[in-house]
Amino acid sequence: MTNGGLRLVPASSVSLAEFAAAFTDGFRGYAVHLDDDAEKLSRRVRADHYDLHHSLVAYDGDERVGMAALAVRGEAGWCGGLAVVPERRGRGVGRLLMRALLEKARAAGVRRLTLEVLAGNTAARRLYEGAGMRVVRELLVLERAEGRDAESSALEGVSLEEAAPSELLPHFARLHTVAPAWQRDLPSLLVAVTRGLRLGPRESPRAYALVSEGRDGKTYLSDLAAEDAGAARELSAGLASVGGALRIINEPEQSLFVAPLLEQGFAETHRQHEMAIELS
To answer: Under 8 Å CB-to-CB from 85, ≥6 apart: which residues?
Structure first.
């Protein structure tokens, strides 16, 4: 596919290392550092269901200038990244990639496409709004620094039990009162390597957390679920037993966990707009 002198090729036609390099180059100078390689990207491709045939890499001659990643689950689609190298930003490459991505999403049978954009990235938000996308909710990145004491001690002594993720995930639908973000939905969790912590009986936990170790040395809460606000508060207090820095990415602002996590010493480090468009 060529347009405006640029050549758009399916990500499936290049190596995974080349597609990873397109991510890294496109997100240079971004507020959140991204340094991708084939190994990191391969894990995301599996966990988040990237459709490499309908994802794109943009070239000007032999020069790599941008990329767009599409993930597909049935009729639901997610843009896992759309980026242009800094030297080519503001020249229409992003608009071209966005139009092509929407075409690819329709061709893949997607009826609703979502993505996230950092709250301060007004240029990207304008690009997505120009393509017809609208903000549907806020997603928060929360972090507890290593060694930081919880501000609330009212629930000291809450004990969480170790549990295999395979024991906890059958309760995913029952214990999620707010729909999770794409990367934290059940299909992604089935692939992720995690440990589990449970509040309540094994047969019917009141709440749980899934914990994973990132290659950046941080410990991530990859899933949080609770039957009500009381259980969410108890689980949040029990996370004091997990040592070191803790980070949770894309927790919905309406989640039962936001307030109790803030009480327990977490801080909001980033905020993202989740945007969506209905496709015909």
So the answer is: 25, 26, 28, 64, 65, 66
Contacts of 90 (CB under 8 A, 6+ apart): none
Chain-centroid distance, C-alpha 243: 23
What's the average model confidence in pLDDT over 256-273? 97
φ and ψ at 129, to 5 degrees? -65, -35
Tell me how far apart the alpha carbons of residues 17 and 36 are, in angstroms, rounded to a whole number.
9
> Residues 273, 129: contact at Cβ < 8 Å?
no
Residues 6+ apart with CB under 8 A from 128: 98, 115, 117, 275
| Residue ranges, CATH 3.40.630.30, the chain | 2-110, 141-272
Q: pTM higher than 0.90, yes or no? A: yes
* CATH fold group of domain 2-110: Aminopeptidase (3.40.630)
Question: How many CA atoms, within 13 angstroms, populate the side-chain half-sphere of residue 192?
Answer: 25
Query: What are the angstrom distances between the C-alpha of 78 and each of 24, 31, 83, 157?
Result: 19, 21, 15, 40
d(CA 176, CA 103): 32
Phi, psi values for residue 50, rounded to 5°:
-65, 135
Largest CA distance in the chain: 64
φ and ψ at residue 85, rounded to 5 degrees: -60, 145
Q: pLDDT digit string (tens) for 122-157? A: 999 999 999 999 999 999 999 999 765 544 444 566
148-193: pLDDT as tens digits: 554 444 456 688 999 999 999 999 999 999 999 999 999 999 987 6
Rounded CA separation 76/278 (Å): 10
Closest CA to 78 of 86, 68, 70, 88: 70
Q: Domain 141-272 is in which class?
A: alpha beta
DSSP secondary structure letter of residue 135 = E
